[in-house]
Amino acid sequence: MMLKLRKSRYGFTLAETLITLGIIGIVAAITLPQLIGAWKDKQFKTAYKKAYSDINQAFQEAIFNQELTRDSALSEEYTAQEMDIMKNKFIMIADCLDKKIDTCWAKGETIGGQNGTGYPCNNQSTCFTDISGRNWCTYYFHENIFVVDTNGFKSPNRFGKDRWYFVPVNKNNQRSNLASEYTGIGLFIRQDAKSKTGWCHYPPCNFQSWLLD
């Protein structure tokens, strides 16, 4: 008796192919946003470290050269002096004169005011853009709190992502309002914020860990 041999079947049927593609699509839909988010965070973290390094170096050079004279907490003159140090060091390409910051600071998250509205703002802050495209502002034109948007006018324009705070510090790494005590630049917010706060509206804000990592 002759035996009929069944031909072996290789490859996938159309149904199997569609099922496989569907599974791949589901996995991609779940993992791709996470991968993109992690990649963006890596870019934000690198830019944050660079901004911190640059402003710290600028102030340390000014301290060494005895260029800073602040002796009070609130002073438009001393804040302007400190901003001038940064403008010269970073090579300013745009200056927002008369405290009209719109051409140097994108609309987005502000801080220090009620319901997320506050500073930097027109008539109360001074800003400039450096040659790398970063936007720098005073939080308030009398104070020595300096904020940076590391990617200029690009989104997301949020503190803890592309916007950060810096202040001059003393030898104990505490914020100082006396130039005679300055040792460099430190963090205005010195710990991470995992939940919403007045200084972090879109947590997590990795103020400290992104510099240490």
Automatic annotation (TrEMBL):
Top-rank taxon, per record: Bacteria
Signal peptide: none
Membrane-spanning intervals of the chain: 12-36
One Pfam family cited in the UniProt record for this chain: N_methyl
InterPro entries: N_methyl_site, Pilin-like
Key words of the record: Membrane, Transmembrane, Transmembrane helix
Protein name: Type II secretion system protein
